Amino acid sequence: MKPKNIKTETQLIHAGVLNNACNAQNSPIYRTSTFVFENADQGAQRFLGKEDGFIYSRLGNPTNRELEVKLACLEKSEDCAVTSSGMGAIASCMWTFLKSGDHLLADNSLYGCTFALFTHCLSRFGIQVDLIDFANLDAVKKAIKPNTRIVYFETPTNPTLKVNDIKAIAEIVHNANKDIKVIVDNTFATPLLQKPIELGANIVVHSMTKYINGHGDIIAGCACGSAKDIGEIKMVGIKDATGSVLGADDAYMVNRGLRTLSIRLKKHISNTKQIIAYLQKSPFIKTIYYPGLDTTIGHDAATKQMSDFGAVLSFETNLTFEQTKALVNNVKIITLAVSLGSTESLIEHPASMTHSTYTPEALKEAGISPTLIRLSVGIEDADDLINDLDQAFKIAAK
Q1: Is residue 91 scored above 80 in pLDDT?
Q2: Helix pair angle (382-396, 321-329), 10° resolution
Q3: Average pLDDT of the chain?
Q4: What is the mean pLDDT of residues 168-179?
Q5: Mean pLDDT value of segment 150-171
Q6: What is the pLDDT of residue 2?
Q7: Where are the alpha helices (DSSP H) in 166-260?
Q8: Of these residues, 30, 46, 70, 111, which one is catalytic?
Q9: b/e string for 121-133 if b means 16 or more Cβ within 10 A?
Q10: What count of Cα atoms within 13 Å lies in the side-chain half-sphere of residue 264?
Q11: Lowest mean pLDDT among 47-51, 292-296, 351-355
């Protein structure tokens, strides 16, 4: 039996490990669609929920369960549900807790596909959606309605790195109505840098594609929360509404990547701080967005609720739009690609890529300018990354 009171870096290795028949050091991958019952009565008891055990991999799988227990431990939640993508986790939450006539209140700075889900899809089913700036706490308080069921936000946000005050927002929401679900996307911070449930959130979602897996080779998501909420998400949002089931092989890969999260994050963050020091001296930079800078919205909240500031930054150039495109077209080591949290450094242009679902008006409201670049800093040598940016800037500025 593993000790329960172990620290985070030990939890990354040992939390959630299940017993296996052959006592293998690494848990096996359970590649099975269904599970065998000892008799009909056992099958009936499991379907009635009166006996624990696996039935069918869409409802649960030992490989996935090991990962879920570990994630719940890291997020300080009662339980966790893993899904086949981050959007699968978000959509499963929405289809579980919202119905026609309900109100969803969300921050106006969101990942592009989350924005599309809320504004293009949910609204088609009679769900009222309002997007406002959650940095304005008075506006959040005023925007809550009698039919509000979910308050949703990222922190730090994608791609402006604004930090929303989790504790303050949760208190406002639950003072208005304790039954409203406060859902926080913790992808950028990871459970190592920020724990939203301890700050009052009900549910935490992640795109595990990013830092939790960390190697850019699978797609996965999760939701962490109370046993009751996660049970509903599994039986309604995942089982019936989305079918967003994570395969056992991908769950195994995430669990393997998760073991090195702590040491990866330290290198990611060290590189990020060196790159920011370089950018602060660059003649080509107009503004840098990063939670660790006091010029970024929510910096004070970041210092309270984050143990460090992460490894994603955005910056606006003082170049033209065409020159800004030339910048990302001329990096040699940094990879021009969407996503983040991988061992490789990734650079992208949000307005035309990850946030292309936004209207021009919505881009402006969210603070996403045509010359904004997002950089996910990898674990390469920091000097090589800085030299790569420097040569690309010089080519772009010609």
Answers
A1: yes
A2: 140
A3: 95
A4: 98
A5: 97
A6: 56
A7: 166-176, 190-193, 227-232, 248-258
A8: 111
A9: ebeeeebbbebeb
A10: 23
A11: 351-355
Catalytic residue among 210, 234, 264, 374: 210
Q: What are phi and psi of 353, to 5 degrees?
A: -120, -95
pLDDT at 4 over 70: no
pTM of the model: 0.94
Average pLDDT over residues 366-371: 84
Q: Choosing from 185, 250, 308, 388, which is the catalytic residue? A: 185
Q: Per the structure block, which two tokens stand in for 333?
A: 């080591």
Report how far residue 5's alpha carbon sits from residue 389's, in angstroms, rounded to the nearest whole number.
Answer: 44
Q: Using only C-alpha atoms, what is the Rg of the chain?
A: 21
Closest CA to 94 of 223, 226, 251: 223
State both tokens at 377: 């800093």
381 is known as an active-site residue: no
Give residues with Cβ within 8 angstroms of 141, minimum separation 6. 172, 176
Instruction: Please indicate whether residue 185 is annotated as part of the active site.
Output: yes
Can 264 be counted among the known catalytic residues? Answer: no
Provide the token pair at 40. 């009909």
Token pair in block for residue 300:
């004070």
Catalytic, 234? Answer no
